[in-house]
Specification:
Structural class of chain B: alpha/beta
Chains: A alpha+beta (331), B alpha/beta (376), C alpha+beta (113)
Strand order of the largest sheet of chain B: 2-1-7-8-9
Oligomer: heterotrimer
Helix content of chain B: 25-40%
Strand content of chain A: 25-35%
Radius of gyration of chain A: 19 Å
Order of helices and strands of chain A: HEEEEHEHEEEHEHEHEHEHEEE
Strand order of the largest sheet of chain A: 10-12-8-13-11-14-15
Radius of gyration of chain B: 21 Å
Largest sheet of chain B: 5 strands, parallel
Number of strands of chain A: 15
Structural class of chain A: alpha+beta
Distance between the termini of chain A: 23 Å
Strand content of chain B: 15-25%
Order of helices and strands of chain B: HEHHEHEHEHEHEHEHHEHEHEEEEHHH
Shape of chain A: globular
């Protein structure tokens, strides 16, 4: 079952099975959130389910992820999260203190992101039918004034921005499972709300933002491949401009993984008009935690539908979507 | 990262490429085979084809243990693991490789206890942690990996670990190179030798290629500068009309190999009379099995295996691609029926396989560039 | 065909003399030293790691020599052309011309790290 790991398999499941039945009339590309008109007022709505093992890991936990994930899906859709509904699916026998810690994590993350929890549901399933706990969150938000995101507005020469180092979350989780017997004391998940960055960008030059996405499962490579496909344009990245921490690089070299395929929970990608790139970068860098944001590449006419990475010494390679989960390899 | 970053130094890379350009004779076509799948992967990952002169053609060799493994062996391994209380453990590389009955991951989705291990020694830990289960380690790899399996089996015997066995699919590289050289349609000018295999077997086993086949061979590292320097060394030999074994990867590869590793292999393994290679067919004395003294840790002897044989689709031209007669995209199935998500042929199975590497890193680049009429 | 990565030995595990903790860019793992007998690796040594086993001790000297060789590439040729331009023969050109160390223009030299 590789359909949940982001990347191609998930996309085929959604586009091949789910979307044709549920949204037969829709012609729009799949986004992170839906824009709905409620009696003349536009609201943005999104839903996400969280399954992570272990539920606690360096830098965060499933409760925090469940809030930030939804806040971030709304943020990169140009909306400020206002209200959140939380559903918990609990495995019978889950220790109360584990549950309490996650509820507290949810409350704290919601507080930090400035979102109200307005309701929810709890289900308990038999022992062995779930892995300690799953969380699903649905968030509703209001459009951030000044941002009008539309993949069709992406043009050649637009700049691709990345908010900070990639792969921290995915590698942290991989190591936290303990199966690989690897340790990286300095590494922790990057889970955080990206809303403050998006708000700063909107204030600085909101109209110059063409597209945004938080590169969670499947990593930067998958998000950008989706963009390239939806926009029918090419994306050229400069490998040396993509920030990757040493420990993430080390783990990736050791396990034969590509940091571009590793999940993030506190980063975002943006495509912006070239003339506004510096202004927007400055705005991101003004926000605490935004100092490592940078331009990592640009939009090109060709190769349409594909993402190309340029190495420092003039070589290039295509970076594809992930096929299934990133698996460590020895060959 | 020390011993990594300095071998990706752009200024030195440019310099080495300039020297390569200076050495290539116009009008001469150079066909060099990188034997090792790790090299294939590195060549694509670093985009080396973009910076090499167009008359240097790199042919991707048979050194991908996942690719050359016959599909039936996967089904045999899965058949053992479908018994009650057996845990199937393997490297991540094997997890998506399809057998006729599905891949290990698909079997896991259907309820089989399948675990990814990073090291054979982790499989031993798994066995100790699950004393009521049997842990089968699905061993793959060339001589680089075989000593680790050997040492692990030796430790299992020392510790009287009864609930552990190895399904041995270790293969040896020299017979495969020989098979390629014996092929009548073989057209290769020189070899980039497998650096990590050579940490174990050293450089001597290649001397026959140089002597009898009159082909130069340079044992190479895996960073861009290693590969470029090895190509340069091959070109120098070709220019001078020489054919000798050279060691580019001296910082890691001793000329004599790793004696302790060879001894561990000799202690635990013996050669199989013959073994099937996907894409190349049966090759005599090309694979390892556990010696009688270690029969207790040999999954094949401990459990009856069905001995499944699955033939590849006739249209798949893996053998021709392996020998360098065809390029990956020239195979009729490439990118159509046969893709990394649904591999039909051997070379699409692992990201090290030449078809999969070409598909992932190169094929759309060239295809799109050609259709657009502009360089990507 | 085999992914292997350099790592630095940071700890020898006392309970088991054939095991070491190896650091790869801040990521640590226990690595089996059972395949290195003669090499006698110690703390601070670099080893090549494959599937949790140290396969080989990495020679800093050979790495430095490789860098030196590469840094020299083409140098002799261009140096010769340069001296020819002054009407001198190559024999009269001193060793200094071939110095591979980084020059004022920041040209890369031998292994720096």
């Amino acid at each position: 079952m590789s359909h949940g790991a982001g990347g191609n398999a998930s996309r085929r499941l959604i586009e091949g099975l789910i979307a044709p039945i549920l949204f037969p009339a829709s012609t729009e590309p799949l986004g992170d959130a839906a824009h709905v008109d409620l009696n003349g007022r536009r609201v943005v709505i999104t839903s996400d389910a969280f399954v992570v093992k272990p539920v606690r890991f360096p830098g965060g936990s499933i409760g925090e992820l469940a809030v930030n994930g939804t806040v971030n899906d709304l943020a990169v859709s140009g909306a400020k999260a206002e209200a959140l509904v939380v559903t918990l699916v609990l495995e019978a026998g889950l220790p109360t203190e584990v549950l309490r810690a996650e509820i507290e994590a949810i409350a704290q993350a919601a507080d930090e992101a400035g979102i109200r929890i307005v309701g929810g549901d709890t289900k308990v399933v038999e022992h062995g039918k779930a892995e300690s706990m799953y969380i699903s969150t649905t968030g509703i938000g209001a459009p951030i004034p000044g941002i009008e995101i539309n993949v069709a507005s992406v043009r050649p020469n637009d700049k691709v921005l990345l908010s900070g180092p990639i792969g921290d979350h995915g590698v942290t989780i991989l190591l936290a499972r303990g199966e690989l017997d690897l340790e990286a004391t300095e590494l922790c998940s990057d889970t955080r709300s990206v809303l403050p960055f998006v708000q700063a960008m909107a204030n600085a030059a909101g109209s110059a933002i063409r597209w945004m996405r938080d590169p969670t499962r499947g990593g930067v490579a998958t998000s950008l491949n989706e963009l390239a496909r939806d926009a029918r344009l090419g994306i050229a990245l400069e490998e040396e401009d993509i920030p990757v921490r040493d420990a993430v690089r080390g783990a990736c070299e050791l396990l034969g993984l590509d940091p571009l395929h590793i999940a993030n929970e506190g980063q975002f990608l943006a495509v912006v008009a070239p003339e506004a790139a510096e202004t927007i970068l400055d705005a991101i860098r003004q926000v605490p935690g935004g100092d490592e944001a940078r331009v990592i590449g640009e939009i090109k006419e060709q190769p349409a539908g594909a993402v190309l990475v340029k190495t420092r010494y003039g070589g290039t390679r295509i970076v594809d979507m992930l096929v299934g989960d990133p698996l460590p390899r020895i060959c | 990262m020390k011993f990594v970053d300095e071998f990706r130094n752009p200024a030195l890379i440019h310099k080495t490429v300039e020297e390569i350009q200076r050495l290539t004779e116009p009008g001469r076509h150079y066909r060099l085979m990188e034997v090792c799948g790790g090299h294939t992967h590195a060549i694509y990952r670093f985009g080396l084809k973009d910076i090499l002169p167009p008359n240097i053609e790199l042919i991707h060799g048979p050194g991908c243990p996942v690719c050359v493994l016959p599909m039936g062996r996967i089904d045999d391994g899965l058949a053992i693991a479908s018994r009650p209380n057996v845990i199937f453990s393997a490297f991540g590389d094997m997890m998506r490789v399809p057998g006729a009955s599905g891949s290990p991951l698909e079997h896991k989705a259907r309820g089989m206890d399948v675990r990814i291990v990073y090291s054979p020694s982790d499989a031993i830990k798994l066995a100790k942690a699950n004393p009521d289960k049997h842990v089968m380690f699905f061993a793959i790899g060339f001589e680089t990996t075989a000593p680790s399996t050997a040492l692990t089996v030796m430790r299992a015997r020392q510790e009287h670990l009864e609930n552990f066995s190895v399904f041995c699919n270790h293969v040896t590289i020299i017979p495969a190179i020989r098979a390629i050289l014996d092929s009548p349609d073989m057209r290769i000018g020189g070899f980039i030798g497998p650096g990590h295999v050579s940490t174990v077997i050293g450089c001597r086993p290649y001397e026959w290629i140089a002597a009898n086949e009159r082909k130069p061979i340079v044992v190479s590292g895996f960073e861009p500068l290693d590969l470029l320097q090895s190509i340069l060394m091959l070109l120098r030999q070709l220019k001078a009309g020489e054919h000798k074994v050279e060691n580019q990867y001296k910082r890691v590869v001793p000329w004599e190999g790793n004696i302790a590793a060879l001894r561990a292999m000799a202690e635990v393994f013996e050669l199989r009379p013959y073994f099937e290679w996907r894409g190349l067919g049966f090759i005599s004395q090309s694979a390892l099995r556990l010696r009688n003294e270690y029969a207790e840790w040999d999954s094949e002897r401990r459990f009856a295996i069905p001995g499944i044989r699955v033939t590849d689709p006739k249209a798949a031209q893996c053998g021709e691609v392996l020998k360098g007669v065809l390029k990956p995209a020239q195979c009729k199935l490439f990118g159509k029926e046969c893709t990394p998500e649904h591999p039909l042929g051997a070379l699409m199975v692992s990201s090290e396989g030449s078809c999969a590497a070409y598909y992932s890193y190169e094929h759309r680049k060239t295809a799109l560039a050609t259709t657009a009429g502009t360089p990507a | 065909m085999c992914l292997a990565i350099p790592g630095k030995i940071v700890e020898l595990v006392p309970a088991n003399n054939a095991t070491a903790v190896v650091d790869v860019a801040g990521v640590r793992r226990r690595v089996d030293l059972g395949l290195l007998e003669k090499e006698n690796p110690g703390i601070g040594d670099w080893v090549l790691i494959h599937v949790g086993f140290a396969m080989s001790k990495i020679s800093e000297q050979d790495a430095a020599e490789q860098m030196k060789t590469l840094a020299l590439l083409g140098e002799s040729e261009s140096a010769m052309q340069e001296v020819r331009g002054y009407g001198l023969t190559s024999e009269e050109c001193g060793e200094g011309t071939l110095d591979p160390s980084p020059d004022a223009k920041g040209r890369p030299g031998c292994a720096q790290s």
